[in-house]
Specification:
Translation Initiation Factor IF3; Alpha-Beta Plaits; 4-stranded antiparallel sheet; alpha+beta; elongated; 9 strands; about 260 residues
Length: about 260
């Protein structure tokens, strides 16, 4: 009986030992990872190869149709000139069309009648040849545009520039991580996580608003030619920002060589 109890006790101890060993390994396996988190920025400067701007026409009349006809005729003339200059039809878009009645009221604020109608139309234009921008601005004003606005410059295909900016952003983040690791007596062992925190789109350069009041007035003189508007596209920037986490391991302590005994 006593021998049986001893055998049972040994079996229980053996079982407990086998169970305990995996638990120790699991704790070692899930030991917290040593990491360093850094951010990086990549900026690529590019010369714009396209421009966008809007032109607007406005007409006022006591009745609606003459005002609509005036705006429509000006818009048609501008569109025809743009097409002749090589602008694609898909790059000429009517972005707004408004009809606003101007009401007449008595002294008490009561409506009396519609005094006149104001018709406004805006056309958005994309020009894929920067050299044509100044000439087209001048031409649209000549053909009846009352204002030109929202002039901006950008890049038609930013993909390769975005890829370059991403490489620069990751390199910037890694360099920072290596600096921190060196200062902490550790070594970068790998990339643990990466998140792109910015919207990698080119920043359009705003060219401002072209005031048509400064344009040379058109007369019947055949020899009068206005100079094209001087437009400078400058440069545009493509920016990418990333958030990264890098795994690290502490550097081993170098043991001094033992001095041989005399």
């Amino acid at each position: 009986m006593i021998r049986s109890l001893r055998i049972a006790a040994v079996a229980v101890l053996t079982s407990l030992t086998l169970i305990a060993s995996p638990l120790v390994s699991a704790q070692e396996m899930y030991e917290p990872q040593r990491t360093i988190s850094t951010s990086g920025t990549g900026i690529v400067t590019v010369e714009p190869d396209m421009a966008t701007f809007s032109v607007g026409m406005e007409a006022r009349d006591e009745t609606l149709k003459p005002a609509q006809d005036e705006v429509t005729n000006e818009a048609n003339a501008i569109t025809a000139a743009l097409l002749e200059a090589g602008i694609d039809q898909k790059d000429i878009v009517t972005s707004s069309y408004q009809v606003t009645p101007e009401n007449k009221y008595d002294r008490n604020g009561n409506f009396v009648s519609i005094e006149s109608y104001v018709v406004r139309m805006t056309i958005s234009i994309t020009v894929r040849d920067i050299d044509l921008v100044g000439e087209l601005l001048d031409q649209t004003v000549t053909l009846g545009a009352d204002y030109v606005s929202s002039i901006s410059f950008g890049v038609s295909d930013p993909s390769p520039h975005i890829q370059e900016a991403r490489k620069l952003a990751i390199a910037d983040a890694r360099q920072k991580a290596e600096d921190y690791a060196f200062g902490s007596d550790a070594t970068i062992t790998g990339l643990f996580s990466l998140y792109e925190s910015s919207s990698p789109q080119p920043t359009a350069k705003d060219g401002g608003t072209y005031d048509t009041a400064e344009a040379a007035p058109m007369t019947a003189a055949a020899d009068m030619v206005s100079n094209p508007v001087d437009v400078s596209a400058g440069t545009t920037r493509i920016t990418v920002r990333v958030e990264t986490t890098w795994t690290i391991e502490p550097n081993g302590t170098i043991q001094p060589e033992s001095t041989p005994a005399n």
